[in-house]
């Protein structure tokens, strides 16, 4: 900055501050264009300081420093240029410093003032990477290996196990190439062991997922035997799991124990899980005592529901009653570690608190707590049902012991469910009176339990066709809990049984309003609409049910039947095809398909399904009759004989099947066999006119002497038949009464076998 400073000439030696208010024309930058001295200095080398070298002595030594307080005379420098601060041609030369601040030599040559270097333009581009260098190739290959491992894991999570294995193999191949390249470029100590470990571990996991257990074990062995991998011994747990899948239980236990030895005691949770695997393996090998020791150790160190349940199973297997009781008490005592339900009830009217409670009422943590509680209740109920019949002299005493233990625990509400299960056990033992008495004990309980017991009582009485009692207990169940869909469904069933279909439909609708997924109510309302001939609504109900129960044979059957009633055989055939894909051996469904194809005129398809139906159930008379008639129509009477013979075995008192056998012999030209068959029929049914007629005809054609005998018998039978008809006719005329007629239609066995009410019970 000192280059633009000019020293003012000294005017008054005594006034130190004189001259500060005077205007120096050197600072008049607006007149620089008219300043001849300045323009000359810019265009020429006039006034420029030559570069300083070692051979040229510094000017500071040969001249005194001129200041505002210095001498009044100016001295020339050793290089001949005017001294700093002197006045030439009436203009003072600017004062200079050793180095200008913010200026460069280029500025002195006429360039503009640019201390930030903005006039130099953008920065030059970065130097391009040399992709051919070994380090860059290694870096790119390592990146590719990591990407392949990630893609393999993602494919496995998406369920594409084959793609996951291919990616894992590809990653393994590229990782080996990477190791060889690193060995050529750097020392072996610089190899990325973490990458090698992850590649091998992922490959072994994918082999195991694809059930290629031998390859998986070999890969795990490579990891475990490599001492450079820290904590690789834990993978022996995975190897033990593979041996467990292969049912090589001795090796599985061996590797579990080896892994247990290599895991420090600080990893308590991991050790507990391994011990649980050991206990399960002991159960599979039948070593229940060793399994009990393992599970008892777990329950003493870190009790959990699975270990407690497995302990009960092991004690049950050896039949130790006392150990079963102790194990059940340990299972009951396992802490759930979940919050109480009161936490999710807002205690005040504070809107912020209410919002918080609503937010956490059904969040993921709350759902996890519900699942954990449901799992605990399932284990306890299953264990109680398992041990109750064997821990005491009778199952009733055993159930009572379990109920008392449960009542004294945190699962008090399960006691009533155990009582209901006790009633179910009575039912399985065909002791209906005890079951009813047990359920009647709940009539004075709280509304939820009372409703459940009354629902089951209604179910029992409905099965015994005691519809009045069933209706009474259904009313009690509904009154106790109006929102119980099972109670409403049972009430609808009792009304349905009495023929009041409209009222039954109302109960089913109410059950569905309370629980839209109540499949029993949805099925029964479909049946009700069929009874009311509201086929469109029935079809809609069954289609909704089909969306819930995709592979229900009964639902598919009802949909096909509704389409048949709607006179849409093509749709009926399509739904029956779905039905036989679910139950391919259902003879009724196959015969119904044959019937529909026969009504459509497709005899070949009808024959195929009728024959399949006969193959699975060779006692259906309708199918046998159709197949026999089909062979007669197609002129294969010999093949029809076997079907009519089977029909005669099924219905030996029906003469028509034996007549059909004889007729087939006669049509095929085997007259002697036909004659013998007719004679046998005549022996069994001597009053059969049709048989005698064929005997007379055959004997006449063959020329046998018995023709006269059979002709005489035929005339006598015809005369007796005529007299009988006359007596019947005269009796009708004299009585003057009218014969009552019974009208009705019997549905096919196919429909009736599938058309039944669902009953909501236990």
UniProtKB/TrEMBL annotation:
Annotated Polar residues bias: 750-762
Which molecular-function annotation in GO is an example for this chain?
kinesin binding
Q: Any signal peptide, and if so, which residues?
A: none
Q: Specify where the region named Disordered lies, as residue ranges.
A: 112-135, 724-762
BP GO terms, sorted: inner ear receptor cell stereocilium organization; intraciliary transport; kidney development; non-motile cilium assembly; regulation of cilium assembly
Q: Name one GO cellular component term.
A: ciliary base
Where is it mostly found? other
Q: Where are the transmembrane segments?
A: none
Its domain of life reads Eukaryota
Subcellular location per the Swiss-Prot or TrEMBL entry: Cell projection, Cilium, Flagellum; Cytoplasm, Cytoskeleton, Cilium basal body; Cytoplasm, Cytoskeleton, Microtubule organizing center, Centrosome, Centriole
Q: Where are the TPR repeats?
A: 233-266, 272-305, 485-518, 519-552, 587-620, 621-654
Task: Please tell me whether the keyword Magnesium is annotated for this protein.
Answer: no
Record keyword Cytoplasm present: yes
Q: Which UniProt keywords apply?
A: Cell projection, Cilium, Cilium biogenesis/degradation, Cytoplasm, Cytoskeleton, Flagellum, Repeat, TPR repeat
Subunit-structure text: Component of the IFT complex B, at least composed of IFT20, IFT22, IFT25, IFT27, IFT46, IFT52, TRAF3IP1/IFT54, IFT57, IFT74, IFT80, IFT81, and IFT88. Interacts with IFT20, IFT22, IFT25, IFT27, IFT52, TRAF3IP1, IFT74, IFT80 and IFT81. Interacts with IFT172. Interacts with IFT57. Interacts with IFT46. Interacts with IFT70B. Interacts with C2CD3. Interacts with ENTR1 (via N-terminus). Interacts with LRRC56. Interacts with DZIP1. Interacts with CCDC38. Interacts with CCDC146. Interacts with CFAP53.
Purpose: Positively regulates primary cilium biogenesis. Also involved in autophagy since it is required for trafficking of ATG16L and the expansion of the autophagic compartment.
The name on file for this protein is Intraflagellar transport protein 88 homolog
Gene encoding the protein: Ift88
